[in-house]
Amino acid sequence: MTDLTSLTLAEARKGLADKTFTSLELTDAHLSAIEAARVLNAFVMETPDRARDMAKAVDEKIAKGEGGPLAGIPLGIKDLFATKGVRTTACSKILGNFVPTYESTVTSQLWRDGAVMLGKLNNDEFAMGSANETSCFGPVGNPWRRDGSNTTLVPGGSSGGSASAVAALLCMGATATDTGGSIRQPAAFTATVGIKPTYGRCSRWGIVAFASSLDQAGPIARSVRDAAMLLRSMAGHDPKDTTSVDIPVPDYEAAIGKSVKGMKIGIPKEYRLDGMPAEIEKLWSEGAAWLKAAGAELVEVSLPHTKYALPAYYIVAPAEASSNLARYDGVRYGLREQGKNIIEQYENTRAEGFGAEVRRRVMIGTYVLSAGYYDAYYLRAQKVRTLIKKDFEDCFAKGVDAILTPATPSAAFGIGEKGGADPVEMYLNDIFTVTVNMAGLPGIAVPAGKDAQGLPLGLQLIGRPFEEETLFSLGEVIEQAAGRFTPARWW
Amino acid sequence: MSVDAATVRRIAHLARIAVSEDEVPHLQGELNAMLAFVEQLSEVNVEGVEPMTSVTPMQMKKRQDVVNDGEIADDIVANAPATEGHFFLVPKVVE
């Protein structure tokens, strides 16, 4: 029998349906792979007993012909999703040993459809980071290394554990979240596929909040089809999230292989940055050529406010974070540090419980919302956000179906290499992805090639609101042309 | 705009994060780097532009004003650092 961990989700689904193997066998193969890959630090909690129990239960259902769309498929869950009875920390010391008494809507839908939980995945603390280096459990290793080098690279962030685990064949797919690029950037760094759906497509209920007007859940998987299968289960209306949208979830998988002939693809000139590496430029033109060869029409478009998206994001996101994270007060759950009075208890708890990046963002958020500065910073940023969204609307109004851009300005870098002196250096990683969150649009990152050092690079497709299907169709064209990329095992 | 050391201490207090004196210069540098980065927004003409309130144009859904949850006091206090019965314990707030 071939190694079960190397199957795609779609292949595993067939094997399970044909009774070539059981979910328990598939689950055990992944549990062994996880154990052998602890050096990557992708999992912050392994749940082997629960995984085997879930697998056995689903095997019985499959035998009776009652398996759901993801019956028996082992997945990893980002530690930002509340999982009933299983520690959930957002990789922050301040949540300590928090054990939810409830299940997030997104994960409950995955279990409803028969998926099996292998454990909880590492991420940047409260999803604040682009390299998975701010986690209280330490950094995650990227399964990819530069040709001929032993240097461990970052997998990107904040969903670094999700991307690393999927790329290293530790799980068949993973949940992730994206506030400024946290699904798409790590996907690009690890040659995996990641989609951030339209804001409102997945319920945010039970996901640890970072910036509520930007946060969206989505899957990371090893193929476009696998991502489509996962998103179908994750998406859907939830009365418990007032921003979740009440429209039917399409069968995303049906979009795979659909003709893209006649689709109009925008190439935004503002994404052509000064000093952009030649190989990113080349990848981008190649991607455009592949889509053209498949019958799509390419048009140059302009998104004039692109350069203001990242600075506006660094006002809006910290402002919302400072307000969301006010709940961590050492009273109702998580860490408590004593103080002489309740104020001191709050201050000591939050100083001890939050890491440096989180403290910095909560403070900047507090500042931009404080009396006398609100109009100059927060209000202005929200106006700029309106202009960013209008840029996309103008573009779509001209008949553009999707926009093609690079996913990241560079390939993966070494642990500790960026952001040490100036936090803004790290923030620039999200320059191509953050506009999509600001406008609430869907965006997919698809592996498209490698740089001169053998590291994967990805392309991003941005779609109209709730037209994820277009992204799956186009993404698969790129996947077919570029081929699939698997890292050489060193762990 | 940039912040001075006194402002850093004031923000830290507003954010309820204890900051020691020797952390102030470092934090001041980082916050000023972020403020310098967002400064470029001042060149955007936002005259007459509505600030964004909802990224997806939708009517805010309203729930029925009825009790539909509750009786889970054990769950609510399950993760608390200090409790007595179904109450959270905190240092004395009122003299």
The major β-sheet of chain A equals: 8 strands, mixed
Low-confidence stretches of chain A are none
Task: Please indicate the percent range of residues of chain B in DSSP E strands (runs of 2 or more).
Answer: under 5%
Tally of strands of chain A: 11
Proportion of strand residues of chain A: 5-15%
Shape of chain B: flat
Order of helices and strands of chain B: HHHEE
Instruction: Characterize the biggest β-sheet of chain B.
Output: 2 strands, antiparallel
Helix content of chain B: 25-40%
The average pLDDT score of chain B comes to: 93
H/E element sequence of chain A: HHEHEHEHEHEEHEHEHHHHEHHEEH
Percent range of helical residues of chain A: 25-40%
Which class of secondary structure composition applies to the elements of chain B?
A: mainly alpha
Measured distance between first and last alpha carbons of chain A:
23 Å
Number of helices of chain A: 15
Oligomeric status: heterodimer
Overall pLDDT of chain A: 97
Radius of gyration of chain B: 22 Å
Distance between the termini of chain B: 41 Å
**Which consecutive residue ranges of chain B, at least 5 long each, have pLDDT under 50?**
none
Family (chain B): Belongs to the GatC family.
Protein name (chain B): Aspartyl/glutamyl-tRNA(Asn/Gln) amidotransferase subunit C
GO molecular function, one term (chain B): transferase activity
Enzyme class (chain B): ligase
Sum up the structure in keywords.
heterodimer, A: 491 residues, 15 helices, B: mainly alpha, two-stranded antiparallel sheet, 2 strands
Helix and strand topology:
The complex is a heterodimer of chains A (491) and B (95).
Chain A: H1 9-17, H2 23-36, E1 43-46, H3 48-63, E2 74-78, H4 105-112, E3 116-121, H5 160-167, E4 173-178, H6 184-190, E5 193-196, E6 216-221, H7 224-234, E7 264-268, H8 278-293, E8 297-301, H9 309-324, H10 342-353, H11 356-369, H12 375-397, E9 402-406, H13 423-427, H14 434-439, E10 443-450, E11 456-463, H15 468-482
Parallel strand pairs in A: 2-3, 7-8, 7-9
Antiparallel strand pairs in A: 1-3, 4-6, 5-6, 5-10, 9-11, 10-11
Helix pairs in contact in A: 2-3, 5-6, 9-11, 9-12
Chain B: H1 5-14, H2 24-38, H3 73-77, E1 83-84, E2 87-88
Antiparallel strand pairs in B: 1-2
